[in-house]
Predict the 3D structure of the following.
Amino acid sequence: MSEVILRTDGVKMHFPVTAGIFKHQVGVVKAVDDIGVELKRNETFALVGESGSGKTTLAKAIFRLYKPTAGHIWFEGTDISGLDDLKLKPFRRQIQMVYQDPTSSLNPRKRLKEIIEEPLIVHGFRNPDQRLRRVRELLEMVELPPEFLWRYPHNLSGGQRQRVGVARALALQPKLLILDEPTSALDVSVQAKIIGLLRKLQKELGLTYLFITHDLSLVRNFADRVGVMYLGHLVEVAPAAELYTNPRHPYTRALLSTIPTVHASEQDMLPERTPLKGEIPSPAYQPSGCPFHPRCPLAMPQCIVEMPQMDAVAPAVQVRCHLYGDSV
Amino acid sequence: MSTASRTDLSSVRNEELRRGWTRLKRSPLSIVGLVIVALVVLAAVFAPVLAPYPQDAGPGVHFDRVHKPPSLAHLFGTDDVGRDIFSRSLFGARLSLGLGMIVLAIGMGIGIPLGLIAGYWGRGVATLIMRTADIFLAIPSLVLALAVAAAFKPTLTTTMIAISFSWWPWFTRLVYGEALRIKENQFVESSRGLGASSWRTAYHEILPNLISPIIVKATLDMGFVIMMDASLSFLGLGAQPPTPAWGTMIAEGRQYLPTIWWQATMPGLMILVTVMGFNLLGDGFRDLLDVHADIGEG
Amino acid sequence: MSDVLLEVQDLNVSFQTFDGEARVLNGVNLSVRRGEAVAIVGESGCGKTVTVKAIMGLLPEGSSRIGSGRIRFKGDDLLGLRSSDWSRIRGHQISMVFQDPMTHLNPVFSVGDQLTDVLLWSGQQRVGLVRWLLGSLQRGKRNEARKRAAEWLQRVRLPDPEGALARYPVELSGGMRQRVLIALGLITEPDLLIADEPGTALDVSIQDQILELLEDLVATQGTSLLFITHNLGVARRISQRIYVMYAGEVVETGSTQEVFDHPRHPYTQGLLASIPKLTGEMGEGIAGRIPNFVAPPPGCRFAPRCPFHTDQCDVQQPPLVEVAPGHQVACTLYEEGASGQ
């Protein structure tokens, strides 16, 4: 039952770069360029990449905080990419987001009850008793004690705050949850707890997760499928297990090889150390051809001139690299 | 509402109040400020009851007790027409506090919404609002007040309007700056992601975070407004005699200095103490209302 | 032992808070030998940053208090130093590389100026404006310093080191700024470099480059390294010896290899288990939260969260006992073994 819940098709998110007092456009930042992904119901799809890869921008386009410059976003068969605020509102209930920073994502002047209840009010739940009941239910779901109802976020630890963020996201019973680095601000012992909770909720509520992260070890444990992004492009999509045992794109391999590990057993799993040279270029200055070619240890003349296509190289595995193209 | 949740909330509130009180207690200067402000407010509210000679608030001449020095019968002495300065000072508190509150209410009423609009919606609207505010700030408030007073008849009302006009831009600036900062928080993004209207986001997410800086500013400003009012009255641009405004009283008493020192000094001391009280209290609020200050656990 | 460069003995630090005195460090012992790379790991609130600040003499005066303890560096007791003596040590014999390169580089001075200033003036207690200006006029000295600065930028593998001297911090990327900061820390050729999670704010590929750079430089310079991090993977990679801290106490220490392969303390075990592994394993995390420092648990500070908790744990703080050569653990589970020695 691999029904597709969300599909993007050629999504582009370009931001103009302006200069001078008259703000004339001098260039364009292609933060997200031509992305097509499919999320299957009840799976966890991870988007990984370094800063500047466009993963967060893509998530915000899907969440429709941005209106994509081009392309389509199909959610359960409806194209939501061009909808205005009013038409979008029913879809807002279906797609919710858990934010990266549990301090900045909760209003410090509101009690937890008010924070968790806010989505219900915005979406027209008028009965305060019902709302309160739902808030209590949500607190229980995220394993917070009921007396937290009247606390302020600053009384809570980071992990507890992130649970509140999850409760708020779940208030409207969404189908798709976008998790924007939900544990990157937390300690590892707390991260493990939150990941455990997210797993449990996914099973109980049949949620689909779009998981944005730069932590490759965490992806291995949490995601079903992984999309690797580089400079606004998707360069590899593969099932998690496959990606780690057989990384194909040179960028994926390089990323995996630099993961700091804690256990000897992990060492054998890493590809041969191929640390990346240089830094990720600014998205405003896209290299010609394959965006990765200036840093790629295996770059060929073809890479400098021609952008590779996303090719299916194995079941469920797609790679954007000339090494695997038809031409080779 | 279930009663259980209400008792919960009230016990939590009590606990928070208790903590707040404990913190306030640790800062003796804030307590001094609080006591002074409380006394001035009491004096203002109960002036007709507390004043030993309430009829002296208005016009009147008592040739039998002109320029009596401070004594038990006349705590602050009497003025050039024999009125009890202590009684007049109490009524003066009424005027000053009332005027201060009205000016701040008008200033906040105009300034806060404009600042919020400029801060949240930004772009063209912000430019328009903030440049207008800049224009108002560019005119010294005393000059503006003089102009207004000159254009109309110098009365208490014109003083009030004049001060209010020069006051709102300060609130607009404060709110604008804070709103810009708060807007960057993810909870604002989250509110937008829920499909909440801009109004709701501005009012329910941003405004609550502005309340403490506004309270602090309003408290500190109360002192400044009282000073401003006193200056204007002193120059004869505010309340006219025989109204017992502190500034007017100093102006009246000035010509008898230094021999009849009490007629100008006593209302002057009232201004000094009141303004200081509000400043101390304002500083106390600043420490007290800082959300992060009570995460002491590290 | 003459090869011990830095020794911290029974360090107690407390902070004055609204709720009372928070005992943030409770009897911390640690040492760094010459040429050794040592890591302190722990989660937020474990006291690793406070420890380092105490060593550098950078604890806030007034709100913090050093209750007892000694910090010896090359035989000097750092806690007894006057501020004039500090300038001889801080930034000169002990330097520090910070986590956030943007806030620790002065935005209004060029990279070259910041590096040469360190070379020309470090170790001096007070440099008045006049002296500074006169110093700037001494061409020869200044040019020499500039040459050394360029050399160091080369060593930290900054592309175009000569050109970088004239650039300002904002013109550099995060990774490049971190390199400049490392150059700034090492240019005085200190005996000890303290690194507070450098590179952790950066991407993994850049972090990897930074770690490699630090490893190389420390090895070639013979500088000792004290590396503070919450990332156990990073600690494992960079250090030879490791201290695991929890709630202001060292709970386990030993050679990095030994501690990672045979973690003994329940906290270390829980922490290691919590880390997602490439093999697809990941533990459940550790329940509960860090204790209140004003009224910490009477015995072992980890006891309330510990899965092996017994009554014995609440009696007193367990001392560090040796379980294997060089491997010490502060846990009642291992005390019986220790009593037999």
